[in-house]
Amino acid sequence: MIKLIVGLGNPGRQYEKTRHNAGFLFLDDLLASTGGSWQLDGKFQAFVAESAIAYQKVLFLKPETFMNRSGQSVGKAVRYYKIQPDEILVVHDELDFAVGVVKLKKGGGHAGHNGLRDIIAHLGSNDFYRLRIGIGRPAAGKVVADYVLSEPAKAEWPLLEDSFALAKPYIGQIVSGDIAAAMNKLNT
């Protein structure tokens, strides 16, 4: 059962609609659909919210520590609420998938994603679930950091929104522990 859903991104208006903020954008969309609202919590260095999904209370967290230090915020929340790694869903951008693709997995390495790297370091475990939102790769010769910190092209926005719409109906299954069924649907 999932008790904590973390969206990864960078705080501030200049990053608000960048590819690297796909996790924040998805979590904003998901929370809005539950009627919840964000509150800044200095204790966790994050925006937090509580809402019900599939009749379960779920904590939502958007770290304000910047992407590369997301683990600081996640680690504080996990220790405070006594949440185990396998009760966490981290939503993040994924360079290895085309825009519009979304997949669910458990565990694994960080694949060069600094937000995941920091979470793994602070939890001392990689045994959490990840909802990976495809943002595509930059063209050959382009700098990855510049790509992820830029806004998607106008034609990419509908694909990104479609990936959110594809994943949202399965969040209830994921939260309630029917993760294998959600994986079967999302990963096909």
Radius of gyration: 15 Å
Number of strands: 7
Q: Determine and state the CATH class.
A: Alpha Beta
**CATH topology type:** Rossmann fold
* Structural class category: alpha/beta
Shape annotation? globular
Largest beta-sheet details: 7 strands, mixed
Beta-strand portion reads 15-25%
What fraction, in percent, of the residue positions are helical?
A: 25-40%
Distance between the termini: 22 Å
Protein name: Peptidyl-tRNA hydrolase
Site (Discriminates between blocked and unblocked aminoacyl-tRNA): 10
Binding site for tRNA: 15, 66, 68, 114
GO biological process, one term: protein quality control for misfolded or incompletely synthesized proteins
Write a brief caption for the model.
This protein is α/β, with parallel strands linked by helices and 188 residues long. It has helices at 22-34, 70-81, 114-123, 144-148, 157-167, 171-176, 179-186, and strands at 4-7, 39-41, 46-53, 56-63, 88-94, 102-106, 129-134.
